[in-house]
Design brief:
5 helices; mainly alpha; elongated
């Protein structure tokens, strides 16, 4: 059912869907909104909003991974600060 739900949502509404879209598709496949939203839990990005391209876990991994650029900026800032304090 989850695969059918996701395929219908993508075909009819695209990859970013809201609760109205989920309610509509849930009716089409003879299930409740609650059941449909439960099957979409890993795609939830906000209240009544789902992104069917990536899962929340993938987004968290991307957000929490360190960026190379950020490390260089921090190291250069620390070096600059140390040169002024000594």
């Amino acid at each position: 059912m989850q695969e059918q739900l996701i395929n219908l949502l993508k075909e009819q509404y695209g990859t970013e869907v809201n609760s109205d879209a989920v309610k509509s598709v849930a009716t089409q496949i003879n299930t409740s909104y609650a059941t449909a939203s439960k099957h979409l839990q890993s795609y939830k990005v906000g209240r009544g909003k789902w992104n069917l391209e990536v899962t929340v876990k993938e987004l968290e991994n991307t957000y929490n991974s360190p960026s190379v650029e950020g490390k260089d900026t921090i190291n250069s800032s620390v070096s600059l600060y140390q040169s002024f304090t000594h």
